[in-house]
C-alpha cells in the first residue's frame, strides 16, 4: 500500500511561486520577440533612410542655363540645311566651350559636363530657327558642380555654385534621363534604363523556364512518381541543388550555355537560363510542399466521381496548391533578381551603353550595374549607385506586390 | 460455394466478388471475400475497426489503385464484367460506382459547381440549361435543394457538416451512378444530420445499389436489408439484416453484436 497523497494545495506558497514564474517566463518571451522585431525594423529603417538620403539625389541633376547668342557665336551652320552630318562637322564641343567661357568665366570647363554640347546639338536639331537669335539652353553641370549644388563639393565648386546661383542660372531638377539612359562614363549622363530592361528580360526568361519546369517536376514527383530509390535520389539532388552557392551556377552556365552551346555571351537569354537553374529547385521544393498540403480528401472526392488523374491534378490539386507555389516562386525570383555572381561569370558585367533590344542582345542587370558603379572612381557615381539600389528595391517591391496580389486572388477560403 | 453462400446468392447481382484478397505490401488485409450485392437493397458492412470493411469497399470502385502498395487478387464484377480486367476503364467505372466518404469533402467551390463538376467532366449535360436541370434534380434527390436553392453560388465548404455530406451524396448522384458506396458517411455527423442521411438512403434505395460501411450497428439495422460482418479481413457472416441481428449463426458475429468486442 503506498502512502496516501495529501490533496494538492493550489493556494500554497510554492504554487504561487510557480504561477509567478510562469507569468514571468511568458513576459520574457514576449519582450524577446518584441525586441527582435524592433531591432530588425530599425535596421530596415536605417537602410532605407541612408539609401533615400543618398539615392534620391541621384534622381536629380543640376543644370546651367546658357544664354547663347547664336549669331555672335563662332558657330558656322546654315539654319536651312541642318543634318546630322553638318552638326557633326560644326565642332560643337569646341563652340560650347568658347561660349561657356565667355558666359561663365575661365573655369567653365570645370563647370559644364563634358557632354553639355549634346544638349545644344539636340536643341538646334529640334528647332534650327534658334540659330538666328539668342536662346537660353539648359545644359548639364559637371559632376563637381552637381555635387556642390546638391550637397557637398570641393571648396572651389561650392564657391562657383554660390556664384552661379546668384546669377540665377543654376537649377536642380528631376533627371528624367536617369530613367531613360543607359550606362556611360560621365555620371551626369548615365541612366538605369539599360540595366532595368536587362533585368526585366532576364527575369522573364527565368520565370518562363523555371516556373513551368519547376511546377511540372513538383507535380510529377508528388502525384505520379512511385516511391523508389530513384525518386529518393532525385529528391536529395534537388534539395542539394537549392543550397549550391550561386557562383557555381554561373560556372555551369559558362561551361554549358556559352562554351558548349555557343549561345550569345552577356545576353539576357543566358543570364535567364542560368538563374532559372538556380530558381528551379526552390520552386520544386515549395511546389512539392504546397501540393503535399492539399488534403487527400479532395483527390478522393474527384477520383470518386470519375475524374481522371490529369483532371484531378489540373482542376483540383494545382489550383489549391497555387498560392503556395507562387510564394515559393516569388522567393526564388526575388533571389534571382538580386543575384550578381553567376551573371558576372557569363559576361553580363560588360560595359553596355545601349539598352538591349531583345534577349540575345548584350545586356546587364540592376545588381551588376550597382556593382559596376560602386566600383567607379568618380564621386558622382556614389549617388547614382544609391539611386540604382532604389530602382532595384522598387522593382523587387513591385514583383512581390504582384505575387501577393496573385496569391490572395487564388487563395481558397475553406 | 458453401451452402450458406448459395442460400444468399442473389439473382442478377449488380456486383459480385469472388475470393477477393487485398494486400498492403506483405500484409494481407482481406483474406478471400466472396459476396454479392443486389440492386434492390442496401447492403451494410459492419465490423470492428481495422477489420477490412473499408478496404473491401474501396476495391469495389478501385479506389485502392491510388495506394501504391495495395494489390488486389480475385475477381470483382459489375454486371458480369470484371472491373479489374485490363479492358475496364477506371474513370468510367468510378462514374458508374460512385463513392461518398467518411469525412464530408466538398470541393472548395460553389454548391452549383460541386454538383456540376461530375456531369461536366463526363459530358453528361448538353448546355447550361441542361446542367441547371441536373443540378436541381441531384440536389432534390440529395434532399438539399430546399435548403440551398437560393445560394447555389456560395461555397460548398460554408455548409454545415450534414449539409456538406448530403452535397457529396448529390455530387455522386449527379453522374447517374449504378452503385453508390458509402464509407461511414455519418461518423462525422451529429444525430440529427445522421437521421437525415439515413432517411435519404431509404429514399435512394431501389434506384441505386447502395453499399454502406458503418461502425454503428443500430444504423446498419435501420438502413440495410443485407448485412455483412467482417472480422480481421474475413467475411464472417453475410445475411439478411434481421437474421444477422436476431439470429447470428457464427459465434464471432454474436459476440460482436452483443458488444463483447468491437
Automatic annotation (TrEMBL), chain A:
Transmembrane regions listed in the UniProt entry: 31-51, 200-221, 241-260, 267-287, 317-338, 385-406
Domain ABC transmembrane type-1, first and last residues per copy: 196-403
UniProt cross-references to InterPro entries, sorted A to Z: DUF3333, MetI-like, MetI-like_sf, Phosphate_PstA
GO molecular-function terms, A-Z: phosphate transmembrane transporter activity
Entry keyword Transport: yes
GO biological process: phosphate ion transmembrane transport
Keywords: Cell membrane, Membrane, Transmembrane, Transmembrane helix, Transport
Principal location listed in the UniProt entry: membrane
One of the Pfam families matching this protein, by short name: DUF3333
NCBIfam families on file: 3a0107s02c
Similarity section: Belongs to the binding-protein-dependent transport system permease family. CysTW subfamily.
Protein's UniProt name: Phosphate transport system permease protein PstA
Automatic annotation (TrEMBL), chain B:
Keyword Transmembrane helix: no
PROSITE patterns named among the record's database cross-references: ABC_TRANSPORTER_1, ABC_TRANSPORTER_2
GO CC annotation: membrane
GO MF terms, alphabetically ordered: ATP binding; ATP hydrolysis activity; phosphate transmembrane transporter activity
Domain of life, source organism: Bacteria
Record-linked CDD domains: ABC_PstB_phosphate_transporter
GO biological process, one term: phosphate ion transmembrane transport
Domain ABC transporter: residue ranges: 15-257
Pfam families: ABC_tran (PF00005)
Keywords: ATP-binding, Nucleotide-binding, Phosphate transport, Transport
Xref: PANTHER family: ABC TRANSPORTER I FAMILY MEMBER 17
Name of the protein: Phosphate ABC transporter ATP-binding protein
Species name: Sphingobium psychrophilum
